[in-house]
Design goal:
Shape: elongated
Strand order of the largest sheet: 3-5-4
Largest sheet: 3 strands, antiparallel
Radius of gyration: 25 Å
Distance between the termini: 77 Å
Strand content: 5-15%
Number of helices: 6
Helix content: 40-55%
Length: about 240
């Protein structure tokens, strides 16, 4: 009997010691080591790939933002502020109805099949809006020129980038509404075009937040800036 009790006590003691050691190693030392390596070697990525403007964090290069006008009375969704380059649609995003004390970024897809009538209508409406919004005096956008990412949301709804083609067709509109030279705005877009990772991974892209920050800087240099509207990439 005493032998049995002693063996049980030794097993329990060994188990508790193993639990304590593994808790310290796996729950304290390992996380701290990983965090230290991340901060030392990949500081920007470890902290959320933050983008700053005028010394202030205005977003992340991994999460898309909207650039909208203030919501008007009677509107369910705000109208886009066409002075800025616009991101992809975000039809799949929900709203925070769980705890409205906090303004949360919710991620989600439309979860609709390719032949879904509502999705087809969304795409048609989005294409018509892109053609209308980006057609200015002397420049007409053809429906065939509208790229897929201009009328469809990504799987997360938070895609921070658009295709170079979608950025290009917005140049004329952005230049006109901001009183800027078209060539200067096009040069800005070209400078922010990123190719495929390692030459074969992913697709060419333009980060919209980084582009709009550069646009704000160009406005300031040009002397045509008249203040930042809601959704300004400078956070003003």
């Amino acid at each position: 009997m005493n032998t049995s009790v002693g063996s049980t006590a030794r097993l329990l003691g060994a188990g508790l010691r193993a639990l304590l050691v593994l808790t310290i190693v796996c729950g304290v030392i390992y996380p701290l080591a990983v965090m230290g390596v991340g901060q030392a070697l990949f500081n920007n990525k470890a902290n959320g790939s933050e983008i700053t403007s005028n010394g202030k964090v205005v977003g992340s290069e991994l999460i898309g933002q909207r650039y909208d006008l203030p919501l008007k009375k009677g509107e369910e969704t705000p109208a886009p502020d066409l002075k800025w380059f616009q991101p992809r649609p975000s039809n799949g995003l929900g709203t925070n109805s769980v705890n409205t004390q906090y303004k949360l970024i919710l991620s989600g897809a439309t979860n609709r099949a390719g032949d879904n009538e509502e999705l087809i209508q969304w795409v048609k409406d989005a294409k018509a809006a892109v053609v209308k919004d980006n057609s200015v005096d002397g420049y007409q956008v053809r429906p065939a020129d509208v790229p897929a990412d201009a009328v469809t949301s990504s799987g997360s709804g938070l895609d921070p980038a658009i295709s170079p083609e979608y950025a290009d067709i917005q140049v004329q509109r952005v230049a006109k509404l901001n009183g800027l030279d078209v060539g200067a705005v096009q040069k800005l877009v070209d400078e922010h075009k990123d190719g495929r990772i390692l030459g074969f991974i992913g697709e060419p892209r333009v980060n919209v937040l980084e582009l709009n920050i550069a646009l704000k800087a160009l406005e300031s240099t040009d002397g045509s800036a008249d203040g930042s509207p809601q959704g300004s990439p400078t956070g003003e």
